[in-house]
Amino acid sequence: MKLLSEKNFQAVLSDPGQLGAFLHDAIEISALEKVARHQAIGRLLRNERIPGWILRRRQNLFVRPYSLEPLARESLPELLSAFGNISERRYRSLCGQCGVAPDPGAIIKAGATVYLSRSSPPVFVP
Fold this sequence. Notes:
It is a single chain. Helix content is 52%, strand content 0%. The longest helix is centred in the first third of the chain and has 30 residues, at 16-45. It is an all-alpha fold. The chain has a domain at 65-104. The chain is flat, with a radius of gyration of 24 Å. It has helices at residues 6-14, 16-45, 69-83, 88-98.
């Protein structure tokens, strides 16, 4: 089942109306893909064959937070650096949990992230 060829897709990309309609359809297909993947996993777990697809397993290893306590006693700055930056929301939440007032100087404003969002209701240009 092929929805678009490379040639047809280039036509979609070059026309704003077609591009908008394609993005709208892609959102709906994405939601259906999640359902299809769930169905496929169930079938493959029951040893049914799905041409072109197999199951892979990934081992998830982790360390519980309390296991980091000895590291925090020895070298807190290195431990904190290993975790990297956290969001402003998470910082404020942690401050609240610890009963500490957030330091306004700790919050750094970074460049904005640009992302695409659907208008409500979707507007299609013929």
